[in-house]
Amino acid sequence: MKTICVGFLGCGNIGCGVWKLLSEFGQDILHRAQVKFKIKRILVRDIHKKRDETVPEELLTTDPAQITDDPEIQMVLEFMGGEEPATQYMLRALEMGKTVVTANKMALALNWHILQEAAEKNNCGLYYEAAVCGAIPIIRTTVDSLQSNRIEEMMGIVNGTTNYILTRMSQEGGDYADVLRDAQRLGLAEPDPTSDVEGFDAAYKLSILSSLAFHARVPFDVIYRQGITQVSSADIAYGKELGYTLKLLAIAKRDGGVIDARVHPTFIPNAHPLASVNGSFNAIFLHGHACDDMMLFGRGAGSAPTASAVVSDMLYAVSRDTPRHPTFQNSDKLASGLTVTNDWRCSFYVRLNASDRPGVLAHITACLGQEGISIRNLMQRDAVDGHAQIVMITHDAGECAIRKALAAIDSADVRVESMIRVEAK
Q: Domain of 63?
């Protein structure tokens, strides 16, 4: 039997979840893996704060050095969130030769290269299954189970807050602002929801996932990002009429040396597996040259699901004789030999408010045709006050071409209300 001495950096929602899981399931872990995790010290901001779990006060400290510099502590678990001071605390722990397990996608996505360099230099582990999609084992699947594959494409619902909001808007026809307020009241959205609704959270996760999937560093700052704040219930309703469901997707594709990495609202056909992923659930759909299509689905957030991933990493770490790290060159720059395109190809949903008079529709189609864009579906609503709603889905086209075509439309007669990308496969 092994006994591993552990320190916590943070004891909020996730930290309490890990404490509870180790307390209630520790005997089963001992029986299955012959490992006992002994929690020696827990870093908190306020020792006297009331917590969801009863954590002995004698374990609590406000001094990070009592964890990062304690020679008895072999493994440090980081649950603080945010880039700093979490990165510096993890870095110090790695420099002291301790294995680090983190649930912090932001710190990892922005400073992965620094943390991995310290881990390799000091021959210690750095594990982060819980940083992406909670209990879904997408990191381990990508790193271990799919090593015999060349992963060519990955699309995922990786943020539960935005998926909950879009699901409610789709099912109930509610407006974004109203549904967001409900999500905040229920604790599904933060008081400041910017990271979720503007796509930052999903982009951090996509940086990690795409780097592992493509065996090449895809930094956060090369990922195109657009949130859901401008999504309207009208667009969701029109999309449903045309057979599509709207999701905030994290999309990564690789074609030779060209990377396509983006986060944005996306229409997908109702028959696509991701279309049925509702509420706060997460899912990753990927394609490998040998495995073909597959999807992993489950709880992407919450104290218990995330704790499951953390403890899985703890067990994985102690089961290895030597730490395992990604084999690609990990830096803050895009891997050499790769380029990131801003001219990806997909279909496009476009909603226009147009003057109801002869020649306007011909003008619109001429502007599209000038850029080689053809229309797959077109729907027009009866005119109100001399203006009609025109909704169309294009055939596959380039991002730059659709932008140029829409910019060429005469704004005196036509107002572009929205443009949403469509992944039709």
A: 2-131
Q: Could you tell me the two tokens for 288? A: 């490998």
Nearest to 105, CA basis, from 77, 127, 82, 138: 82
| CATH number of the domain residue 40 falls in | 3.40.50.720
Give the number of other CB atoms < 10 A from CB of residue 222: 18
Catalytic: 50? no
**Which of 131, 152, 185 is the last residue before a domain boundary?**
131
Indicate whether 21 and 80 sit together in one domain. Answer: yes
Residue in 49, 105, 121, 205 annotated catalytic: 205
Q: Are 351 and 234 in contact, with CB atoms under 8 Å apart?
A: yes
- 3-state SS, residue 289: coil
Spatial CB neighbours of 239, under 8 Å, sequence gap ≥ 6: 245, 246, 267, 349, 420
| Tokens coding 129 | 């299954």
Taking a C-beta distance cutoff of 8 angstroms, is the pair 121, 191 a contact?
no
pLDDT, tens digit, 9 for 90 and up, residues 99-141: 999 999 999 999 999 999 999 999 999 999 999 999 999 999 9
Nearest 5°: phi and psi at 160?
A: -70, -30
- Are 348 and 402 spatial neighbours (Cβ–Cβ below 8 Å)? yes
Closest by CA to 335, choosing from 252, 211, 255, 216, is: 216
- Is the pTM higher than 0.70? The answer reads yes
How many angstroms separate the CA atoms of 400 and 156, rounded? 24
Tokens at 381, concatenated = 């609503």
Domain count, the chain: 3
CB atoms closer than 10 angstroms to residue 349: 23
Q: Could you tell me the end-to-end alpha-carbon distance of the chain, in angstroms, rounded to an integer?
A: 50
Copy the structure tokens of residue 391: 């909704």
pLDDT, tens digit (0-9, with 9 covering 90-100), for 325-378 = 999 999 999 988 899 999 999 999 999 999 988 889 999 999 999 999 999 999
Phi, psi of 60 (to 5 degrees): -85, 145
Q: Distance between CA atoms of 72 and 85, rounded to whole angstroms?
A: 23
Residue 174: both structure tokens together: 């509610």
